[in-house]
Structures
1.
Amino acid sequence: MQTLNDMLYTLAKGINDGGLFPVMYDRSAKWAVKTAYTTAANRYTLVRPKLSVIIDSHLYLDASQSDIDLSLEASWDSVATDYTVAANRAGKDFYIYACVQADGTSKIILSANSTVPTGYTSTNSRKIGGFHCLCVDVGTIASHTLTDFVAGDILPASVWDLNHKPKYASPEGMVFSDQANIWVDIYLASGTGANTASVNGGTISDTRTWLDFVDDGGAVKKRMLKDREFQLIGEGCNQQTNIFGSSDPVTTGGHLDTASRRMLSNIGCEDVAGALNQWLDEQSFRCDPDGTVIAAGLTSTIYHADTPGGNPVYLKQASSGIYYLACNMAAATVDKYIGPTNYKIPIKYEADPATGAIGQIYFDDDAANAWEKILCNISTIGKTVFLPTNNPAYFFEIKHDASAATNGTAINFDDGADNRLESDNAGGANATYDISLNSQSFTDKTVGGNKGKRYTQGTYGDVKLRAGGIWNSGATCGSRYRAANFWSWYTSSSIGCRFCAEPV
């Protein structure tokens, strides 16, 4: 029998929560695993708070706080499968039911059944919570929340009830991250569509696009993790190691890394790092030059002179492979710069620039494109070259022309008082040239199915982040590992996904 004070407490709580009568379910504190975790028996013991619960229109009150020991037969609805044995609980979800017994009193029962406990019906029982049990022994890991936990122990962060659970998704196979304030899957996703799940021993879903995984998560009311969330839920996982054997794990849960350490985070997420990369719900961008060159709209002047001052300018190639311009400066033996303001190209001083030069440069005022007016017979490679400016997006193009000396007029650099490029060009007047912009064109990309395309720059453009590192990438793996080079319609057997859900 409950005391009058207990009943009044519960009634008052219901009124304070905004109703005239007690709420359908309430408790004085969250359900939890008994502490300290250093005591083995505590790790398979639930601490039950004070409860008020309505079952079949009847209010049942229990103002006591007590322990529920998973190793006792009395805690379970059935021992047809003996869940008092830890090994039988490994990697499984269990449920907490408030039940009405034949004498009208209430009782808390644990069950592996997800609908009603054995011996009861939906009329005389109500599911009020649940939890998940560890799939494989953790072993001793210094500073790890779950150090020395063994298979069948309750994962503390997995304990849920009607007031502490995912808002829309089912809580099976999930743990709660206080830091990220989300429920997150313990295991890498297996199954697809409505069959997407977080289960121990499931066949890992891979070789699916980011787009496919979005649909998979949505089908079970979950979403992908964000960058910061992945880092937070992965704290305590193995860092800078990959899975033992350095090969595709194929199935979820219970793996060791190359240092024989369990691949488990502090809250109980399996295979966060060093198993498969996991798509994140974060945008990145990949820029792949596709050879498209356009006018930069940044011009400079070639000054006309019947007798150009200074000395000829040559195209040369350094031992590093970098192309550059050289000239024997007449006024001062120092390097100079040409080009539009803020987009400068150096001309190096050399006493004998003709020696070892690829060729002299020429000016073609009649070139069709304003950025292709500087010519040279680049016989060494037979191709146009681009010299960098001090802005990495813009280049000074030297167009290959086997007949450069015929099709253009020689260019000198007058480094005296004029400090400029000069040429006796055919037009007989000053002329301009443009530097070029190496650009990526925008195109529609087929992304699978008939649900539209991606209009992106370059070959790929649209990129999604991946996290964790794969089974053979060793020292790069970890909770902070990220890759930003694969587009959203890319597929690989080394990319899976882990889902999460918002709390109530």
2.
Amino acid sequence: MKVTSEKRRSKEEAQQRLLEVAQEAGGKRSFVEICGWPAVERQYQVKLAQTMDEKTKEKLPEAPMVQAATIAIAESDTLVRFEATLQPGMTPESTAPIFAAVRTVTCPANPNPEGTKATIEKLKQALQLSPTVKPRNPPNPPAPPQAMDPLVESGRSVQASVQTSAGPPWSEIQIATSADGKTVVVGSNSGGSFSTNYGDSFSASV
């Protein structure tokens, strides 16, 4: 999982970026509240980059389509974005632990929590009016997973390291899931938690 952050000029601009993230492509998109702030979740398919044989320099067979997930949180004037690409052959349901794990993140308190629901409703209406926007410069296709990526090497886990300097520092987070997505483990500097029901609920680790 890749985690990035964007500092915007205002919280309104960060919220507008949520709409842009939702409009980047199709798939299943929903605006939700995460740790008190408006956020967007998108589950979709993406084509892996086509690779070449290192010896012959010939292109290998066409790269497959794989499941992917994007979650973005507009935390005040900062957009924090999580992106994950799954192994070939995994089902759309396999993205559920990723969404569940990101929903457990902690972030600075929202000084105006009652405004979050209103913001989410506005974003939903805006998405209905303009479902997708063609990007001016289409992003490069994602690189094929590397051998050292735990998701590829073992086929049993997805890991992410999360850290931001916006507001009070977040605790560094490590996330891992089982191959079927049923078991999710989240560890941080302040403790850990686990789920055995696909991320529907979490218990503190002993």
